[in-house]
Fold:
Amino acid sequence: LEEERARMSFANPVQSPHTGTTGLNPTATLTAWEAGWNVTNAIQGIFVLGLPFALVQSGYLGLVLLVLSAWVCNHTGRILVTCLYEEEQSGGSGSVSKVRVRHSYQDIVEACCKGLWPNCPGLGGWMVNVAQVIELLMTCTLYLVVSTSLLSDSLSGMDVPRSVCSLVSLMFLLPCLLLTDLRPVSTLSLLCSLAHILISLLVMLYCLSRASSWSWSCLSLSVDPEDFLVSVGVIIFSYTSQIFLPPLEGSMEDRGQFNAMLAWTHGAACIMKTMFSLLAVLTWGAETSEVITDNLPSDLQPLVNLSLLAKALLSYPLPFYSAAEILQTCLLGG
Structure:
């Protein structure tokens, strides 16, 4: 434990949120709200548009899974952050507090796998970092592809080549290279969340306008096992934010608010996703498309597509910054 403290730059005596006392972080940059917008950006991604189709495939079990996945991902996020801490007994009082002695998943894996590979003590940490970078870069690539597709669809009447749309999207994303801390990323995540709220409201208001034609017939308790497994993957993936949690928690001004922040972000996401998916399924039933925007009327699609374009572009900075931070730590040593 003492060796780890000497090695970790984040090994300052800031208590864990699990001790019941609050410790202020002198090196912090984020409030609980700013950290929450980043988590919301991660769990309210553009993949939410596929949830109604997943609900059609999974029936009433899908509704249960939407709620259960929110609780599980919230709980596992807390557990993973707890692994960044070690217990320490205070002086003569005998009270036990938790002190942050690790700052990344690499540190957690190296602590867990100590002694397993004597000749390569850092192998486990490198494997985790490679997996994280691959996931983050694939997410960045996906957002770029989605942005290009949405921009091309929005300019379909002008016959703009797809390669030009891809270049324009890339130009919008180049300023991400200038990001140096999480505070501007949080601002962009806030704007991304506002774009998501606008999209959700547009779709849900349209569904409410067709309430007279709603039908529960497409939801059932019996589902095809193969379709259900695909739906499980879509629903669970829509809640994943764990990859961003260690740096977010480490950057919070008051780490004692981390658990509450994680709870309200996942709770709000659960309510929004359940309402969004259920209203869409009641409206379109078995005709629900894999991407729900394809079901919208032609006069509403341009506005939704432009909002989705803004959301895709504003979603990009968070995974890009996280990937750059991991690469900088691994290759440049901090």
